[in-house]
Design brief:
Elements: H1 2-45
Amino acid sequence: MMIDLAFFLGQIAGLTIIVLIIIWIIKKIRNLSVQYKQLKSRRGTGKRK
């Protein structure tokens, strides 16, 4: 029983880590797209920092 429980907990931990990584990647992609849009709009209005 203990071995099964440890295996089960290990699977849950692995799944949560995978989900967290996916969420992190999605956030990174969103941030990059926002930065890209900002760069595009900046080019149109002229260079301002």
